[in-house]
Design a protein that fits this description.
Keywords: Coiled coil. Helix content is 46%, strand content 21%. Strands 2-1-3 form a three-stranded antiparallel sheet, with no helix packed on it. Strands 4-5 form a two-stranded antiparallel sheet. A hairpin with a 6-residue loop joins strand 4 and strand 5. The termini are far apart.
């Protein structure tokens, strides 16, 4: 297993993750760590030469809530877009269905006329 500290834009570890495969070495925002260890959380990565800060930068509850609200708003917007797209698709399918029903009705009438006995 491979373990990584996920960094935010301020180089602060916000999550410790585990991967079955190694991440690319040039991937920004992830620092490989020797094992799963949550003591990296909220510490700042100072670079290869300096390592991790001793100071912790835990976010305030208000900042965490604001991040969650922003994520939920983004997800809500994405879901609204998907719903609109699905409604458009349903409308198009209903129109196609109506055309097919009309075509079947016309074909049934034509078949009935062809099967009718001629006098």
């Amino acid at each position: 297993m491979h373990y990584y500290a996920k960094l935010n834009e301020n180089q602060i570890c916000t999550e410790v993750i585990t991967r079955a495969r190694e991440l690319p070495k040039d991937l920004d925002g992830f620092i490989k760590i020797p094992d799963y260890n949550e003591t990296y959380l909220w510490r700042q990565w100072l670079g290869k030469d300096k390592g991790w800060s001793q100071e912790r930068y835990e976010p305030s509850i208000e900042a965490e809530l604001q991040d969650r609200v922003e994520r939920l708003e983004t997800e809500n917007t994405n879901l609204k877009t998907k719903i609109t797209n699905l409604q458009t698709t349903i409308t198009e399918l209903n129109m196609t269905n109506e055309i097919l029903i009309q075509s079947i009705t016309e074909l049934t009438a034509i078949i009935a006329m062809l099967q009718a006995p001629t006098e």
